[in-house]
Write a structure and sequence with these properties.
- This protein is α+β, with helices and mostly antiparallel strands and 219 residues long.
- It has two domains: 2-173, Mog1/PsbP, alpha/beta/alpha sandwich (Protein Transport Mog1p, Chain A, 3-Layer(aba) Sandwich), CATH 3.40.1000; 186-219, no CATH class.
- The chain is built from six helices and nine strands, in the order H-E-E-E-E-E-H-E-E-E-E-H-H-H-H.
- It has helices at residues 2-15, 77-99, 158-163, 165-173, 187-200, 205-215, and strands at residues 22-26, 33-37, 41-43, 51-54, 62-69, 107-116, 119-129, 135-145, 148-157.
- The strands form two sheets. A seven-stranded antiparallel β-sheet has the order 3-4-5-9-8-7-6, with helices on both faces.
- Strand 7 and strand 8 (135-145) form a beta hairpin.
- Helix 5 (187-200) packs antiparallel against helix 6 (205-215).
- The longest helix has 23 residues, at 77-99.
- The model is unreliable at 1-18 and 186-219 (pLDDT under 50).
Length: 219
């Protein structure tokens, strides 16, 4: 029966995928925003999420956004590698507990660090077999900004997820932190500072390294 309902839900979603009406949600206190289909309902009642989005009853999809204080000031490749290493094991354990399966059955199938509209992000995909003959699939977008680590978790039945993958990516790519420049490494400022140092000849190697450490917030 569940598979039948999912099949009906997918047919409805696919039939309207090309003419989907989208709506941008802005969090009232955290200030981030994300664009979802207009019939996805935001819900801030769950303390585990800054906001979750309920989809129509026939759909298995769910979007949740979590936040925690960022351990790194800037969104560098190194920061994202550390974030993924910390996030992946705990997420797999949580999914295993939710599905009541062995954690070893929850697989991380891909991860990448990339840019979306000039914003550096990380994306991980997870897959796990569910006990009642369906397959759980999740795509997680990590964003370091606003002094926080955002995790955008978009999950559902693998078949429905994959058949709507362009829409899934559109939703994740639409995320905007309150201040998109807050986590980005100030490369231009660093190059100007180093250029001035070289021209003036007054800063030796130790002084330059000290300046770099200050700019990257590692003191």
């Amino acid at each position: 029966m569940r598979r039948l309902m999912l099949g009906v839900g997918m047919a409805l979603i696919l039939s309207s995928a090309t003419c989907q009406t989208m709506r941008r949600y802005t969090h009232p206190t955290l200030g981030f925003s994300i664009e979802t289909p207009a019939n996805w309902t935001p819900d801030t009642s769950d303390p585990e999420f800054a906001v979750g989005f309920e989809t129509p009853e026939a759909s298995s999809l769910y979007l949740g956004v979590t936040t925690e204080s960022a351990f790194a000031t800037f969104a560098t490749d190194s920061s994202y590698r550390d974030a993924m290493e910390g996030f992946s094991p705990s997420f797999r354990e949580g999914i295993a507990e939710y599905l009541e399966i062995d954690p070893a059955q929850v697989a991380e199938v891909s991860r990448q660090i990339h840019e979306v509209r000039g914003l550096k992000v990380a994306t991980l995909d997870f897959r796990a077999p569910a006990p009642d003959e369906w397959v759980f699939y999740a795509r997680v977008r990590l964003v370091i900004a606003d002094g926080k680590l955002y995790a955008l978790i978009l999950s559902g039945d693998e078949e429905e997820f994959k058949q709507n993958e362009p829409l899934m990516n559109q939703i994740l790519d639409s995320f905007e932190p309150k201040n998109r420049a807050s986590g980005q490494f100030p490369v231009r400022l660093l190059m100007i500072a180093l250029g001035i140092a070289c021209l003036s000849g007054v800063l030796m190697l130790g002084g330059i390294l000290l300046l770099v450490r200050k700019l990257t917030g590692r003191l």
